[in-house]
Amino acid sequence: MSSEISVGSVGWTTTPAVREHLERAELDSLQLWWQAANYLSAGQIYLMDNPLLREPLRPEHVKPRLLGHWGTTPGLNFVYAHLNRAIRARDLDMMYVIGPGHGGPGLVAAAWLEGTYSEVYPDVAQDCDGLRRLVTQFSFPGGIPSHVAPETPGSIHEGGELGYSLSHAYGAAFDNPDLIVACVVGDGEAETGPLATSWHANKFLDPATDGAVLPILHLNGYKIANPAVLARIPDDELLSLLRGYGYEPYLVSGAVPEAMHHLFAATLDRCLDEISSIHRRARRDGWTQRPRWPMIVLRTPKGWTGPGTVDGKRVEGSWRSHQVPISDPRGDPEHLRQLEAWLRSYDPDALFDDDGAPVQRIKDQNPTGTRRMSANPHANGGLLLRALRLPDFRDYAVPVEEPGASTGEATRVLGGFLRDVMRRNADARNFRVFAPDENNSNRLNAILDATARTWVADTEPDDDALAPDGRVMEILSEHTCQGWLEGYVLTGRHGFFSCYEAFAHIVDSMVNQHAKWLKVAAGLAWRPPIASLNYLLTSHVWRQDHNGFSHQDPGFIDHVVNKKAEVVRVYLPPDANTLLSVADHCLRSRDYINVVVAGKQPAPQYLDMDAAVVHCTRGIGIWDWASNDQGGDPDVVLGCAGDVPTMEVLAAVDLLRDHFPDLRMRVVNVVDLMRLQDEREHPHGLSDAEFDSLFTRDRPVIFNYHGYPWLIHRLTYRRHNHDNIHVRGYKEEGTTTTPFDMCVLNQIDRFNLAIDVIDRVPRLGPSAAYAREALQAKLIEHRHHVSTHGEDMPEVRDWTWRAR
């Protein structure tokens, strides 16, 4: 049974009958550190001058715009103070992840008290001038955000969007056997779907080889304006819920600081003892059962130690303390008086010396060196990053004697490469693959020859490839996979995420946050590059004919392209050898979000490995073997990006050659989608001269694209020949049907493409009428055939490229 440790039994009522766990001097020092952190947190929200209140507070000392979040911060500072005590006492390697990201002033305050902030930012020194800069910069133009951000030492979790703290924490703990990640989950955050699922991450944590996560569910009762659900259900119901998730929860509840210090210290020590025991049994004694990991439920008032009432209304212990509890100290003399009284209640003269530095008793509470959570190298993963040992991807090449003459399954070939990446890095334990129950479906089965799926829960005899130390992370939650991957990569390792294309959208917001993190981190010299986020989107729109309309959506590309050009890369390799080349490049890259789209079904193979490497290095190029405009200008350019659109372009070229032997056609294939953009907009963008040499300045361009066609127009709108670029792509036409019928429904098929060429090449004119009629007849024949036989016409199903 778990323990409930509380001060009093109702609301914030407390009793003095609390067993003392701390020595008096230790208790007083803890209280002093907490006071300092709370003072600095409030000061960051309010002050732009007079940071130590060495003179009476005046309106001009207060920021004109008050931004920030006080309500959650004192609880976060309280936990931080106690974690520091445990780190010093036990020499722990510990990180701090906070879900309430708007508790940013607390983590900035802690980093400054620990000295890390001044080491990273020397102009924010531990003196009066540095302290003035510290408080002024918070939520101030040209300063730092109100939430935990890349600028905050010790952080891997921005927290601007709620729901991902626990999955990030577990991602950090995987393969870090000596690391303990203390993760504070806010009670508002706990209402999100991603957070609710991520409690199950404890079924994937191997106590023999991984670190530990200590969840701390912080119940302060309120969100912005509403009660928090988990704070308003009975304690027995809450504890039953958490036990059902597989945890051993300990409840610490109260509001009297001295009593709460004793109670929390005792509970934290008990939890750390249990974690140590779990690791010892697994590593020394060979214990293989899934442990029941400890966690803490911390119930404290929202806005703890802040003003009790403002304007006659309750603030501490209320939703009114969520952001800025005293709203107008510059304009309201009573508010100014109340703010000064609140700040002085922390006794700043006892916290800081004459120079503005923390007094020695506070400094003595900090761990030293990299044991400081704000200086833990795991929270700055580029410091720990080791390059992967990669096999030569050329060794996995699919033989291609003639373009289009053979078939292959691109992602199955990739699986063999990733299998050996896994093997080569087994000792380093710095590479994992992630998928929402789709690794095998995405044809990456070969990876399971090198490792199992991670699984610490119960097993049955006919289960396939499950083991506690497996390195294939599968849970049917895209959010959790994404969070694990981000936590893993941000702490200095490498990962690969495969997903059904349509459902990558589930992590759109998480990609937003990570892209913003990368953008900001790239401007911080003290944060070295980290491994890229690598996505394989497969089971894609053009081969989701069997699952139907719900599974047909290529729009994740559009979403990613909205992010900063320095961060995003999008690749559409047309066959297995180009996929291998792209995958090798992505695994070597740093600080990017790489999106690779590739099919898993048998498909034509076009380029041998040497040609594939050249083509992928260029990112875009003319396929001379498919073109016949050598020695003159083309009548038409046929562009293509994506495996199925490429095949349909080649089939259209085949048809057009039969009908118009003298029609000069140029085929341009795009692997790196960002090559289409202007060089002024994206680092991979082509110059106008390069673009014009491929697509001409005045000839019609029929572009067959994997996704939504308007993205190509957006990428090319500045080009000289944009008015002549006509894009075919997915236009929200889909159902459960045949593969080729999906193409016809969206008019990316060979017949519609050939008709488009006829209509847009002026010299063909009326002479093409019979050919056009024949192609339209083929579309009618196709419709009749699929509705009668339930499969595509043999000439479509069995088509292969004919060399001429």
Automatic annotation (TrEMBL):
Keywords: Lyase, Thiamine pyrophosphate
Parts of the chain that traverse the membrane: none
Lineage: superkingdom: Bacteria
CDD domains, alphabetized: TPP_PK
One term of GO molecular function: aldehyde-lyase activity
Pfam families membership: XFP, XFP_C, XFP_N
Signal peptide as annotated in the record: none
Keyword Lyase: yes
PANTHER family from the UniProt entry: PHOSPHOKETOLASE-RELATED
The protein's name in its UniProt record: Probable phosphoketolase
Organism annotation: Saccharopolyspora kobensis
